Amino acid sequence: MTADVRAAGEALAAECARYTAMGWMRGTSGNLSVVVDRDPLTLAVTVSGKDKGELTADDVVLVDARGTTEDPVRVPSAEAGLHGRIAAVSGAGAVVHVHALAPVVAAERWPGGVELRDLEMLKGFGRRADDVVTVPVVPNSQDMGVLGDAFEAGFRADVPALLVARHGVYVWGDDLLRARHRLECLEWLLRFKVETGGVR
Ligand SMILES: CSCCC(=O)C(=O)COP(=O)(O)O
Ligand SMILES: [Zn+2]
C-alpha cells in the first residue's frame, strides 16, 4: 500500500469514527470514498462488512469506476460501484454514505423527491436560504448498475445528494470535509422537514 493510499485510509477511518459517534453508521452500515486518480478514475473506498467506527488506515481498497478492485485481500464496499458512478458523473472528490434515519423517513414520505425551501441551513448545502431544492429519491437495489442509472437520470449539478429509499443517503463534495458539512446540514434539513410534518 502506498503512502498516499494509507493517508486516504487514515482520513476515511477518522471520518467514519465521527459519523459512527453521530449514530449514522450503526452496525456495519455506511461507506466512504475519496478519488485518488481521475484518469483512469480510481477511488480509495472503505472495506466491506466491518464496524466503520473501528476502521484503521489499512481498511481501505482501491477500486475503478465500476467499483472493481485488483486487491487480492481486501473486499471493497458492496456499494463501491455507486461511489464510482457518483464521482464520475458529478466530478466530486469525495462521496459519503450513511444510514441516518431522517433521510430514510423523508424518502418514505416523499418518494418523488424531498422539497426543501426557505431555511437558513440550505446555505450549508451550497444554496441560498430562499432557494427551492428538491433532493432526488431512487428505489433501493442490490445492483449498483441499476442504482447508478437511477442516480444519473435524476442528477443535477446543484444538488449534491441522493436519497436511496429504505436504505440511506449519499452526499458528495470536493473533499471529505466539504462532503461532511453538506451531509450534516442536509440531515438537519431533512429532520426539520420530517419533524414539522413537511408543512412547507
Ligand atoms: C447493515 S449494512 C448493509 C449494507 C449497507 O447498506 C452499507 O452501507 C454497508 O455496506 P459495506 O459493504 O460498505 O460494508
Ligand atoms: Zn448502505
UniProtKB/TrEMBL annotation:
SMART domains: Aldolase_II (SM01007). Keywords: Amino-acid biosynthesis, Lyase, Metal-binding, Methionine biosynthesis, Zinc. Binds 1 zinc ion per subunit. Residues 10-194 form the Class II aldolase/adducin N-terminal domain. Its cofactor is Zn(2+). Zn(2+) binds at residues 97, 99. It catalyses: 5-(methylsulfanyl)-D-ribulose 1-phosphate = 5-methylsulfanyl-2,3-dioxopentyl phosphate + H2O. Gene3D superfamilies: Class II aldolase/adducin N-terminal domain (3.40.225.10). GO terms for molecular function: methylthioribulose 1-phosphate dehydratase activity. Its EC number is 4.2.1.109. Pathway: Amino-acid biosynthesis; L-methionine biosynthesis via salvage pathway; L-methionine from S-methyl-5-thio-alpha-D-ribose 1-phosphate: step 2/6. PANTHER family: METHYLTHIORIBULOSE-1-PHOSPHATE DEHYDRATASE. NCBIfam families: salvage_mtnB. Belongs to the aldolase class II family. MtnB subfamily. Catalyzes the dehydration of methylthioribulose-1-phosphate (MTRu-1-P) into 2,3-diketo-5-methylthiopentyl-1-phosphate (DK-MTP-1-P). This is Methylthioribulose-1-phosphate dehydratase. It comes from Saccharothrix longispora. The lineage of its organism: Bacteria, Bacillati, Actinomycetota, Actinomycetes, Pseudonocardiales. The gene is mtnB.
